[in-house]
Each structure stands twice: as structure tokens, then as C-alpha cells.
Design a protein that fits this description.
Radius of gyration: 19 Å
Largest sheet: 5 strands, parallel
Helix content: 40-55%
Strand content: 5-15%
Strand order of the largest sheet: 5-4-3-6-7
Shape: globular
Number of domains: 2
Number of helices: 11
Length: about 260
Amino acid sequence: MAMSITELPDGRWEIAQSLAQPIVYMDHWAVRLFSMDDALQSRFVQALKAKNGALLFSQNNLSEFCAMKDAEQAVKAERFINGVLPNFYIADFTQAPFKSPKSPAEGPGAPPQNWLLYYMGMKSPSGGAFLSVENLISTLVQQSDRLRPDLEEMKKRVAEGIGSFLATDSKEAKRFVPRDHMATVDILFAEFTRDFHLNPAAKFTENDTIDLVHAAYAAPIADFLLLDARWCDKVVKARQRMAGFGMKRHLARVYSKKPAHG
């Protein structure tokens, strides 16, 4: 079980979570697929709970709902997650154990650590007696007109930054070799940008921004990772490169809507 809720002596409720394998992480298309397909969803939830695993869910998953308008999909996504609970883990990729040691400190405007867990405690029915994500995603969809511009601006800034980096001399990037002292997430970022250097026709777009984050941060933690096909291929290439240099690092098995990538 990944998540638990306990009543404290003062009457408040404490939510705790821990990663329980097997760990599954889904890109936005997969969250929507399992939310909308009741039969597929039922099979997944039963299998996950039979294995006592966890669905890993990040703030990046949440952010992608800011671009949606469909209230029905939001409600179904909440029902999907409520069905998964308590086999659920909320990941903040700006915090350990996910973030890179090289990541800069959070700015003064950053939300407090574990703010999503706090939200769940506040919103859980019966004063917190059981876990729920009711209205979490629906609220984002309802506020999409206000929130979407911030999301698009963030994606634009990241895409421009990476685009500027890719426009520089690519010799160093092409010569990149993963090293034992490097964190896996740093190796993946370097491998993914190297891949764009090697394939100049494959332009890095704003839509790649969140895919990059999904892949780089979730692959070292998850056991099964559902991504767009091109990003599955990038994870497979990174695994092969690391193995070629004798590095043994955990990376998730990746899947897309296309046949299994490995």
C-alpha cells in the first residue's frame, strides 16, 4: 500500500505515503485512456492492487489537465484515481528522491512541499476519514482559461531554452558519455538532448517539454512507464547507451499505444 491515513490525538488526519513496487507512471494520454475505458481501468486497478503496487502521479500530470475543457473527463479521471487509492503516490519532481542533485533551490513563489497531500486531507470526505481526490482535477478544468496561459508560457520558456542550447556547438553534446558519478536523471537529460543534436530534423517543440520531464524523472523510479512512442524510443536508446558503457541503472520498461518498446 502506497498511501495511508491516520487519525491523530488532536482529531486531525495525517496522510503518509511510501513507494510500493511495482510502480506505474502514465503520461497524460494514458491517464485519459484508463479513465475513459471502464473495462481497461478495472483490469488495471485489480492487477495493481493484487501486486500491492502504486500508481505514481506527479504535478506534471496535474498541469496537463489545465489545457482541458471536458468536465466529464475530469470527473472520470478523479473516479479512476479514487479507484486506485490507496495504491497511489503523489510525486513532486522538484523534491527528493526525484529531483536532480543539480536542481536549483525552489523560488519564493513555489508551493509548499507535499501541498497535494495537504489538499487531499482537506478535501477527503468524512473530515478526512478516507482518501479522495474529489474535485482536484475538476477544479483545474473549471479554471483552465486562467491556468492554461501559465502552462503554455512555461512550456514556451523551456522549449526556447532547450532550442537555444541545441543551436549551439553540438560537438560536446554528441561526445557525451554517461559517468558513474552522475545521477540517472542527469544522464537522461543529457541523453535526450544529445538525441536531438544527432537528429537535427527532430525539432524540440513546446509539446516536448512535459514529455521530457515525464520521461527523465519517472524512468529512474517507475517499473512501468507509459509514454508517447518517440519518448519510449529515447528511453530505450538511453538504456542501451548506458549498458554499452557498463552502467547498471534501473530504468522503467516503457510502453506506448504502439507495440512494446522494451
